[in-house]
Write a structure and sequence with these properties.
By secondary structure, this protein is α+β, with helices and mostly antiparallel strands. It contains 19 helices and 28 strands.
Length: 642
């Protein structure tokens, strides 16, 4: 139970992460004024992005078990508890109780178990509540003891249940905090180092007497929520009534998750025209999600377009291997292509297609940049609107609770997000929870991973600790591998680079001509490194695809290795495909001769650690003309023909 400091938060400065707490009513406020008692709340600063939510029943049980195990009683068991997602190795949340920071709940990647790290306010609250286990009283009265060692002569008394290495509560003259015991209880009072103080303070923290329920939180924040809902409804209604969309249905993207649930309900309130809801059933969705999506739409008389792909994932698995955070081939196969087929029915007739989507800026660093309205770069003519883009998770939940909307039961089981059950992007904590809820599904996937790992010379620990979820391991996983002494080196040689045409130039349903191909031996990050020289580009982390707008057309390159070129004419499509192939082989086979650095007029090129073209690139072509790899393109890929 040690408090780890939060460093390198990518959300820092992007959001106003503060909200308030009414001490009289003892509940959270989304604005300063409480609508119940009409008094101002105290400002509570949260670590960015501040996407605070209510603790689920499962998360509350985890905290209850940890506190009971260590201290014998839990004074916050029946409290309203909020969690605030913060950066960490895996699932990591600040615990907010009675308007103060109690501690941090985190999933330990090495032990594959939850840990509770106390914060000084939480330790003081536990001491004030009368807990008498794991507690040490010291004689020191200074205020600058955090991080210091305490001699046994300064230990006045201690409980008899302390074991060396325990996190202990520390109290003294007007001081309270926590530390680590260097000895057992029987030896703590002897001379020598007995205790290391982690954090200690002089302020008193007392648990508040009020025990509000969700209905109280709804009442206290009613004016704020009313305005939030009004703005969202007006956003949807305003664009749905525009001339481009008057004669077309409104589509709602429904994943079975909380955000899309709220978005669907808001859309039903905002428009009177027909609503079509599409749900991508990837074949690897949680059974709870599929059942909920079907039941909710059926019981609310909503037309559900369920796009099924059945065994598509398993059929493509032998070719691609397990998907990864940086290799999301499954999204293209199981989501993008099927959904495209639905929306193209609208856009192929020359009309624009309006889709209401529940993405929120607080969900991830990538989504923090979404605009209120965007034209989908991957489906020309589709306009996506994000009416709850600025909502926090707690606001989403207050809407659900106020409207008494049925929601996906997985949220009560500890899932923060709802996706495919084997998605590499889910947290290890959620993957572990999945193994408990669906042992048969877990066994099927785990047996495949173990077989795949064995074929690549990777032991069971590699699979057990989730290293399979990356193609290129991030620093945190490299540190974990070093700590656990797990080899991450695959014995399978790197796949040979190659580009082949799988479909010649042919007319496209949406206009122009397309050309399809397959790339092997190239990572998604390498594509992104060279994309700027080809044109303006966009990377979708969710779909694992880079979209590039060239002078004469568009190029889509998926993490699965699929490449698609669209252009007005046949010759244009072939020319763009060849130019793309040359740039891709350039980034893969770069000799780092440095000639390109000398000819680039804007210093857009970096060679270390790998070739990368910056956004300042003017696409003058001088570096391409000077590149030896491009010069001998036909020899490196002698079989390339389009």
């Amino acid at each position: 139970m040690i408090n780890n400091s939060i460093k390198n938060n990518p959300f820092e400065g992007k959001f106003d992460s503060s909200f308030f707490w009414c001490r009289k009513c003892n509940l959270p406020l989304l604005e300063e004024m409480c609508a119940i008692c009409r008094e101002k709340g105290i400002k509570l600063n949260l670590s960015p992005p501040g996407d605070v939510r209510f603790a689920s029943p499962h998360e509350k049980k985890i905290m209850d078990d940890l506190i009971l195990e260590f201290f014998g009683e839990n004074p916050i068991a029946d409290k309203l508890i909020l969690l605030n997602k913060i950066p960490g190795e895996d699932k990591t949340d600040e615990i907010i109780v009675d308007g103060f920071h109690f501690g941090i709940l985190r999933f330990d990647m090495s032990e594959l178990a939850f840990k509770l790290d106390l914060m000084v306010e939480g330790a003081c609250a536990l001491i004030d509540s009368g807990i008498n286990k794991k507690i040490i009283r010291i004689s020191s009265g200074g205020r600058h003891l955090s991080g210091k060692n305490i001699d046994g002569n300064e230990v006045i008394e201690c409980s008899d249940d302390i074991v060396k290495g325990d996190t202990v509560l520390v109290t003294g003259k007007n001081l309270c905090g926590f530390g680590i015991a260097y000895r057992d209880s029987s030896e703590l009072k002897y001379p020598g180092q007995s205790l290391k103080i982690r954090k200690i303070g002089s302020g008193k923290v007392t648990l508040l007497p009020g025990k509000p329920v969700i209905e109280d939180v709804i009442r206290a924040n009613a004016p704020h929520m009313k305005q939030l809902v009004k703005d969202a409804v007006n956003t949807i209604r305003g664009i749905a009534n525009q001339a481009d969309f008057r004669d077309t249905p409104v589509y709602v993207s429904f994943s079975g998750g909380k955000d899309s649930l709220v978005t669907l309900d808001l859309t039903r309130s905002a428009v009177k025209k027909p609503i079509k809801v599409f749900f991508a059933n990837t074949g690897i969705e949680f059974p709870e999600t599929v059942d909920f999506a079907r039941r909710f739409c059926r019981e609310n008389d909503i037309e559900l377009i369920e796009v099924k792909v059945n065994e598509a994932f398993w059929e493509n698995l032998p070719s691609f291997g397990p998907p990864a955070k940086d290799f999301r081939w499954c999204c293209k196969v199981c989501k993008l292509a099927p959904i495209n087929s639905v929306l193209e029915e609208c856009t192929s007739r020359g009309k624009k297609c309006l889709t209401i989507d529940g993405k929120r800026r607080f969900e991830s660093f990538t989504r923090s940049r979404i605009a209120p309205k965007e034209e989908n770069p991957f489906i020309p003519g589709q306009i996506s609107v994000f009416p709850i883009r600025n909502w926090r998770a707690i606001e989403v939940w207050l809407y659900i609770f106020y409207g008494k909307l049925e929601y996906n039961p997985l949220y009560d089981e500890g899932f923060e997000r709802v996706g495919c059950w084997l998605c590499p992007a889910e947290l290890s904590a959620e993957y572990y929870r999945f193994s408990q809820l669906h042992p048969l599904l877990f066994t099927r996937w785990n047996e495949y991973l173990l077989k795949w790992g064995k074929e690549h010379g990777l032991d069971e620990a590699f699979i057990k600790h989730g290293f399979w979820r990356w193609k290129t391991l991030p620093p945190k996983m490299l540190r974990l591998a070093d700590e656990l002494k797990i080899s991450t080196k695959s014995r399978t040689p790197e796949e040979e680079f190659g580009i082949t045409v799988t479909g010649g130039v042919s007319p496209c349903r949406t206009g122009g001509y397309t050309m399809e191909g397959k790339i092997t031996g190239l990572l998604s990050r390498e594509v992104q490194n060279i994309a700027n020289i080809l044109g303006e580009n966009t990377f979708s982390e969710d779909l694992g695809v880079v979209l590039i707008h060239t002078k004469g057309g568009n190029v889509k390159i998926f993490s699965s290795g699929h490449i698609s070129v669209n252009a007005p004419g046949k010759e244009d499509a072939g020319s763009i495909f060849e130019n793309t192939a040359k740039q891709l082989i350039r980034v893969k086979k770069c000799t780092k001769c440095r000639v390109c650095l000398k000819v680039c007029p804007v210093n857009a090129i970096v060679l270390e650690p790998d070739l990368k073209i910056g956004k300042v690139c003017t696409r003058c072509g001088k570096c391409t003309e000077s590149c030896v790899v491009v010069k001998y393109f036909d020899r490196i890929l002698p079989d390339f023909k389009y």
